Amino acid sequence: MKIIVVGGSGFIGSNLVPLLARKYGQDNVAYTFNRTRPADYLLKERAIRFDLRSDDPRSFSSFDVMFFVAGNSSHALAISEPDVDLERNVLNLLRALQGFHGHLILLSSAAVYYGREREVSEEDAIFGSFAYGFSKLVAEHYTQLLHEQGRILSYRIFRLTYAFGAGERPTRLFATLRRNIQTNQKTIRVVGDGSSIIQPIPVNYVCQVLADSLEVSASQNQILNLCSSEWLTVIQAIDLAGEAAKMNWDIEFVGSEEFPLRFYCSRHKLDSIFKRPCPNLRESIKSYLLGD
Fold first, then answer.
1. What is the pTM of this model?
2. Residue 1, Cβ neighbours under 10 Å: how many?
3. Which CATH number is 243's domain given?
């Protein structure tokens, strides 16, 4: 089985590639990168410099499985430059699938549920009222359409909530909290009132589920929420970090949050298919925040 990870040098990809290499053998795993140079531990000899906007996607035809974990991860960019967001999340996927016809694992986003409140499942109606979630939803629909047309053998779509861990952008919440703990910086800025809901999940667990999906036939042609079993508000996460580090934060509330989140995802469907238990959320967060 030959595996290609598109977006292999990004946050999720850089954690996924080594795991797949250990599990399936490094000679069977390759990954693409564009602007970002692959890290030393990322099997440089298996790296393929590839620009989805211009390079020939027929080079993907020799692979049996594609993990598509590339795309825009910035909500702000989706709002300010929706054409760029659409290209990265939809057009680049379609370009890759012009040359690939095997089994696709697509990493989507729980942002597709924006506008709903309380618990949401994969079967709930989607409003499509948030630019970032809208482009992710379009990518999902195209994936399903291409499968119906027989252009890919199968698909698995995972709607990720909020991954955290090694390699995440330094401006994200847990990376900021971790850095402030390490530098004893007690001031934290929060946009809005901190009541937005987050459902954090360790990136290593995310990658384990993605890798497991190749061996779980029941996950074929399914859409699954990829989330923790618990949720927190932003303020609760900050308080948890302060408790773990024994720090009293000086919280500065700034302006108002334009797109607050009021929903959390059900993982009942994920648990019914996969037998990998979700790690304890609070212990996972503490371990990451206090790690070296």
1. 0.94
2. 12
3. 3.90.25.10
